[in-house]
Specification:
The structure is a homodimer.
Chain A (H helix, E strand, L loop, with lengths): L11 H11 L4 E5 L4 E5 H17 L7 E5 L4 H12 L3 E4 L6 H11 L1 E6 L4 H7 L8 E4 L5 E2 L4 E4 H7 L13 E7 L7 E6 H11 L12 E4 L6 H4 L1 H8 L2 E4 L6 H10 L4 E4 L1 H13 L9 E4 L6 H11 L2 E7 L6 E4 L11 H8 L4 E2 L4 E5 L14 E6 L22 E9 L5 E6 L4 E3 L2 E3 L1 H8 L5 E11 L3 E10 L9 H9 L10 E4 L13 H7 L9
Parallel strand pairs in A: 1-12, 3-4, 3-5, 4-9, 5-6, 6-8, 11-12, 11-13, 13-14, 14-15, 25-26
Antiparallel strand pairs in A: 1-2, 7-8, 9-10, 15-16, 16-17, 18-19, 19-20, 20-21, 22-23, 24-25
Chain lengths: ~550, ~550
Amino acid sequence: MNGLMMDTPLTIQMILERARTFFPKKEIVTKLANGVHRYTYKDFYHRVAKLITVLDQLGVKNSDRVATFAWNNYRHLELYFAIPCSGAVLHTLNIRLAPDQLAYIINHAEDQVIFFDAMFAPLMKQLKPHLKSVKQFVVMDGGAIEDDDFKALSYEELIEAAAEGSFPELKEDMAAGLCYTSGTTGNPKGVLYSHRSLFLHSMAMTMKDNTGLCEEDRILPIVPMFHANAWGMPYTSAMIGATLVLPNQFMQPIDILKLLIEEKVTVTAGVPTIWIGVIQLLEKEQFDLSNLRVVLIGGSAVPASIIDYFDRKYSIAVLQAWGMTETSPLGSIGRLKSYMQSLSKQEQLAIKTKQGIAVPCIEIRAIGDNGQVIEWDGKSLGELQVRGPWVASGYFNTDERAEAFRDGWFSTGDIVTIDAEGYISIADRAKDLIKSGGEWISSVDLELALLGHPKIREASVIAVAHEKWVERPLACIVLKDQFKGQVSSEEIIDFLRDRFASWWLPDAVVFIDEIPKTSVGKFDKKQLRNQYKEFKLPEK
Amino acid sequence: MNGLMMDTPLTIQMILERARTFFPKKEIVTKLANGVHRYTYKDFYHRVAKLITVLDQLGVKNSDRVATFAWNNYRHLELYFAIPCSGAVLHTLNIRLAPDQLAYIINHAEDQVIFFDAMFAPLMKQLKPHLKSVKQFVVMDGGAIEDDDFKALSYEELIEAAAEGSFPELKEDMAAGLCYTSGTTGNPKGVLYSHRSLFLHSMAMTMKDNTGLCEEDRILPIVPMFHANAWGMPYTSAMIGATLVLPNQFMQPIDILKLLIEEKVTVTAGVPTIWIGVIQLLEKEQFDLSNLRVVLIGGSAVPASIIDYFDRKYSIAVLQAWGMTETSPLGSIGRLKSYMQSLSKQEQLAIKTKQGIAVPCIEIRAIGDNGQVIEWDGKSLGELQVRGPWVASGYFNTDERAEAFRDGWFSTGDIVTIDAEGYISIADRAKDLIKSGGEWISSVDLELALLGHPKIREASVIAVAHEKWVERPLACIVLKDQFKGQVSSEEIIDFLRDRFASWWLPDAVVFIDEIPKTSVGKFDKKQLRNQYKEFKLPEK
């Protein structure tokens, strides 16, 4: 027997309607080259309603994929709502990918239209001959492009000419968003979000024990809107009527700090590498961060030094979250439980550097080498598996990696321990673990320790082939500018000596100028491993 | 095209599993005649798992209704989870109803088993001959009952003998809970909650802009578990691992205050009449309420005097919520928007006395006399309609009042205004509005003003027939003990004179000892109107 409750679909339309109804005066702010663009959710709503007509005029049908190629800005936000609310699928393209990867992804997704920031026109022109499905290009800022070999309609002209459209009735299980991840091996793979998954994820983001986003927040997502939906913050902000502050392409530490201050931002979010740069600047100059209450960090394990820095210097809470494109992304969050408040600062910091407990709706387990579920003892290693209503059940239009979705669980590829309190601690990506003489060494643990060294700016530890031990760790170090050429390998290794078993210590240290970054700003170990494939470790 | 997300059902099982997994050490506390009963979510979980076996042994099948007749205590909480997690339907009976109403409801619901607190054994015995479907009685505290004409199994003996059962697979749309409301005319009507509706409602309760319940909270629901699921707090608390403090039958102001203090309660919830009694006691004696951060009040409009009292004297936020059994119950909540923080205290108080804006997932509108949707101008009156995933789509097993569920909206029977900011203000229950000479007078507005009078304890304003004006208001007043016999009708009317148009002023005042209460502790206007049906108003 079913309950007698309304069969109300949980859709992006409901979020949009809520912003219009209850928060018409609240603002969306976008950084521009000169000053900012500022308008209200009411203005926003009316433009989204016009876009419904525009999409129809462009020939976009139900479930068609419509791509965006843009920074975090208000027009991108309009498309975030208009495309799924029209019944089509928002496909956010990663602007940092190589052209051949982009062509593969666009063709695989069968995108019908691409909306792009004007600065990317040359790239679009270059891509066009390789695209099989795209029927229209629309340039989001600036006038139409009418070159012989490349034409693009003007977004503003289309909106200008359009009447507000009416929203079709949607079901909550319908596809709403598509995001490709190149995190796994082989071709990039698409994660196809539903209205339901995006809606539930937005609700979860507002739970007080999760990120606790609320109406009075002024939220700056530094994490790109082309990366796991900017961790859901655009949808969440509209649901609760929070002020949204969008950085556009202005992503340098100084730009970020200025925007934080000028727009009185209360919550911001990005990957650890962003904060390493920001902290460097904070150490040199004075900035007033008194409005900021939460820095949400995810995407890679967060060094204790970052958490400690913000806490000690600014009383700002760093919240560490774990997730993946396949998990929408919020999977777990690193908050202390109430009875942990009595622990020492040091013990608390140790817990905060873990990736936290699963958020409501998400279930976790980890599978050891023997195929069995591991004990939650904080020691046993296993691959993290998750399930829940905003976890992918498969990749879009491919059977590749189908084994990652067996038995109703998604295998994340993250090797973790889980402690008795349920806190996940990521030891490594499965492919980054270093196997030395049959024992695992966690590159993540070594890196997190190294990043706490006062002279080190960036650090990455990779496996290098070794005749006797199969693999041994190599530490790749970027020193802070003022310490360049003044630090020895011994000093680095000595720093680690007290913290780890001797057989964990890297066999060598290389000092480099920069650690290569992935398209979403994380340290790119794949590239680093390639670079040092032939590296000859010292004899021991 | 559907999204490719896991089809994870949102069920009470998931909430239970979460409490067991991440919060096994957190406590559930129940007030007893001597001291308290205290155990953990872990202990709780194992008893719930045993109850799965017990229910099976009692012959309870999928979708069977299983009734509880109990105060807010830990055994009742166990049944809150065990019954729906077994696939059956938890039917919470209102212990304050008259025997004939109870018999009607139990027979209509076709309850198979009734679990009851031992103190209600005489009533159960009295009811038994009138019950058609009940096959088993189980007494929750104390030993089995083996009378000739009434037998009841012992809850503790059943649990003692049972092994832990396994949980069946459930779908989220399945019925999980049943609660009858006698708020409408005619027979009591059943609202049939689904797993999905209860789950989503629990998530909503934890959103920071709603009640913002969180793990560190110690939550005391004074609102009974037989009334709209104690506003969802039992399920919400388990989802977030909050400490739950249950008052059992100890509901006098002194009991409540003692429990608040001894258990360091941070959030409590109940109808306004409870707080009127508590404030009376607070005015006489000193109590340390420093742990309490939120008093959630709903069920009737909240007098400004209560909000102001807690704010001024204790810096405790009174959160006013609106809801009904048919809305699970959370429909709207009275928080200020961030830009209202700059208003004067007085202006803020005026907003806080409204019933707030709809919570996420819930949509609202109001329909005027002419059948049209009213303007949101804070003046136009209309009947509030709501829709959303935890709003009833009909009543259980009856077509009575089907007109309340037309066009996908539920007509609440509350006459409201909605202002430009989206804040609902309840003018009256439709049936309580006073129609004088073709114009509406809001009894609620008059009552809220009267409750602000320093000498008045309780106040209710009802319509009395009038030859010329059709209806005119009569004020029924209960004075505080120390002012009994010392206040004139003129003083009361004069108090209202500055606040309302002269034609709104009651034509007469009667001083009485107590205002009759409904089974859920609200002022019972139906009874009052009956009592004064023949009241002769003074000639004017």
